[in-house]
Design a protein that fits this description.
Distance between the termini of chain B: 31 Å
Mean pLDDT of chain A: 88
Helix content of chain B: over 70%
Low-confidence stretches of chain A: none
Low-confidence stretches of chain B: 1-26
Largest interface: A-B, 104 and 104 residues
Mean pLDDT of chain B: 85
Number of helices of chain B: 12
Strand order of the largest sheet of chain A: 1-2
Number of strands of chain B: 0
Distance between the termini of chain A: 41 Å
Largest sheet of chain A: 2 strands, antiparallel
Structural class of chain B: mainly alpha
Shape of chain A: flat
Number of helices of chain A: 12
Oligomer: heterodimer
Strand content of chain B: under 5%
Chain lengths: 288, 281
């Protein structure tokens, strides 16, 4: 038998043994790097040398330059539109699987996850194959007689970027929505029906509000994923449709202006944090 | 891509309700919802199916119409030395990163579940940051850090990067399962004189084992497919996604489609295995 004081001592030991290793590990590999990144954003580049003095010049560059402002707005707009479209697609799917999936619910859920397990790059690339000049879509439209000659309208533009984003992040929206609708007590829906609420009213006033944390959890994933991605715009987007992620990667790559790149990264971080704060009010973080 | 928050499917949570049937005329007819769902699945699977079909195409370029069926691209992919070594590198990276991520994730989950300490909520959120923030943030932050330390980029820096976003990925399912653990079992074990290590090994761990496996598999598969963080941290040795990324910008042949189909096949087996493990417990 262990005495109470031994137990107390053991508790502290157990706390240190379980808390400290991950804390130190993540501090050394993630939190310190983040702080270094932040400090970079206040430094500046002068003739290919990083001057380690506090300055706000990078942020002046970002917000003062019309082209950079356009990238910023385009990125936020794209992320919001993609999130919205994914919500519209995912809500009925999640509702159907949770309410009517029956014994196929597990199978249907696994089928939503499965595409995530095929290479992300290859999925993006597949859209290029589908939308391209010699692509699947053009071929189909030609053989249906809807087009006389292949069209180059489908690829390398805002449309192809949006479509690809909506597609690759969709599972991240559907999964939390399914979970949210599954937690919905059936008795509430029956009570609502007993009180003569129509299906639409029940959905609007009961199901949707209760599923909202799940929807928001999916939204923050999709939003953040789009905010930082640069693969999709560079594979299927147009040259003047670049997003913040592209700017960051080129500043850390070919342009070699790490302070400016770090400042852009910080802008992405702040935007995602604002979004996180907004959605966490409705309990989205607990559903993550 | 790192922002992966994939709730794992627990069969107990799924199988407890009988199939629903519309009970009164006011209930929505599910056929419209069903049709919408079907269309969504078609949308989800369209790109993958196109690639699978094109991997069998008797043509040097990835395009339609089909010029005839062949298995040549599979042979080319399997014999491709660069693809093979990239595949081996990916396995190595994912394996080491998964062990690290799961180990630290397990410890962190246990600290959060078992103890009260100052800043607990902050600790929980801080650990989740690598998947809440876009992967590009993790990538450039670690790049700047490693370069300040004078560390040469290599598969090891990639492993560390993957281990960092793997931790919250593994943490999620483990923490969720620990939350369902009946505390009384633990108390009973202590009352019977078990030492803390014994309680963990014989009582708690068996209860959370399948969640640990799920978390580890999730971390593994995400690492295996990771592009954004890897781009910034990789040295001379390519992982499979890096090799594919390099080729997508130069020579694009159905070989890549064949390689992707093979990877998808393996992943499907892994997923089914995971579902089987968690449903047999």
């Amino acid at each position: 038998m262990t005495t109470a004081s031994q137990r107390e001592q053991g508790r502290n030991l157990g706390l240190y043994a379980t808390l400290l290793p991950p804390l130190i590990w993540m501090s050394l590999l993630y939190f310190v790097p983040l702080l270094i990144l932040i400090s970079y954003s206040f430094w500046r580049l002068e003739s290919y040398d990083i001057i380690r003095e506090f300055s706000l010049i990078n942020f002046q560059t970002i917000f003062g330059n019309a082209a950079y402002r356009a990238v910023l707005l385009r990125t936020i707009g794209t992320a919001l539109i993609v999130t919205l479209i994914d919500i519209v697609i995912a809500l009925p799917v999640g509702f159907f699987i949770a309410r009517y999936g029956g014994r196929y619910r597990t199978l249907l859920t696994v089928l939503v996850i499965l595409p995530l397990w095929s290479s992300y790059l290859v999925r993006v690339f597949a859209w290029k194959v589908i939308l391209g000049y010699n692509g699947v879509l053009n071929n189909a439209l030609l053989s249906l007689g809807l087009l006389q000659q292949p069209s180059s309208l489908f690829l390398y533009n805002q449309f192809s970027t949006l479509l690809t984003f909506v597609h690759i992040w969709l599972p991240f929206m559907i999964l939390p929505v399914i979970t949210a609708f599954e937690r919905l007590p059936v008795s509430l829906l029956e009570a609502s029906a007993d009180l003569n609420a129509g299906p639409w009213t029940t959905f609007r006033r009961i199901s949707f509000p209760l599923a909202l944390p799940g929807v928001l959890a999916g939204s923050i994933s999709v939003f953040a994923l789009t905010m930082g991605d640069f693969i999709t715009p560079s594979l299927v987007g147009s040259t003047n449709g670049i997003l913040l992620g592209n700017v960051v990667s080129s500043q850390f790559g070919v342009a070699y202006n790490w302070p400016l790149g770090a400042a852009f990264t910080l802008v992405v971080v702040v935007i995602v944090f604002v979004a996180l704060t907004l959605v966490s009010r409705w309990g989205a973080l607990e559903s993550l | 891509m790192t922002n992966m928050v994939i709730p794992s499917v627990t069969p107990t949570q799924l199988a407890d309700r009988p199939p629903d049937t519309p009970k009164n005329p006011g209930q929505p007819q599910p056929w419209a919802l069903g049709a919408w769902t079907l269309l969504t699945y078609a949308f989800l699977y369209l790109p993958i199916s196109v690639l699978i079909v094109l991997s069998f195409n008797h043509s040097k370029i990835l395009s339609l119409p089909l010029k005839g069926w062949t298995l040549d691209w599979y042979q080319t992919a399997l014999n491709d030395q660069a693809l093979r070594s990239a595949f081996a590198n990916s396995l190595k990276v994912a394996a080491v990163a998964t062990v690290l991520a799961t180990l630290f994730g397990l410890l962190a989950a246990f600290a959060i579940y078992r103890y009260q300490f100052f800043g607990k909520k902050g600790f929980r959120i801080a650990l989740t940051l690598p998947i809440l923030l876009p992967g590009v943030v993790t990538g450039v932050a670690m790049l700047a850090y490693f370069s300040n330390l004078g560390l040469q980029l290599s598969l090891w820096t990639v492993i560390l990067g993957h281990a960092v976003f793997g931790l919250p990925v593994a943490l999620g399912p483990i923490l969720a399962r620990l939350g369902q653990f009946p505390r009384s079992l633990e108390e009973a074990a202590y009352d019977l004189g078990a030492r803390p290590q014994q309680v963990f090994r014989d009582v708690i761990f068996p209860y959370i084992r399948s969640a640990v496996i799920s978390g580890a598999l999730l971390a593994f598969t995400l690492s295996f497919d990771e592009v954004v963080v890897t781009i910034f941290l990789t040295g001379r040795d390519n992982t499979l996604p890096m090799e594919i990324w390099a080729r997508l910008r130069t020579d694009i042949t159905p070989e890549i489609a064949a390689a992707a189909t093979l990877v998808l096949l393996v992943s499907t087996v892994v997923i089914l295995l995971n579902e089987w493990i968690s449903s047999s417990e």
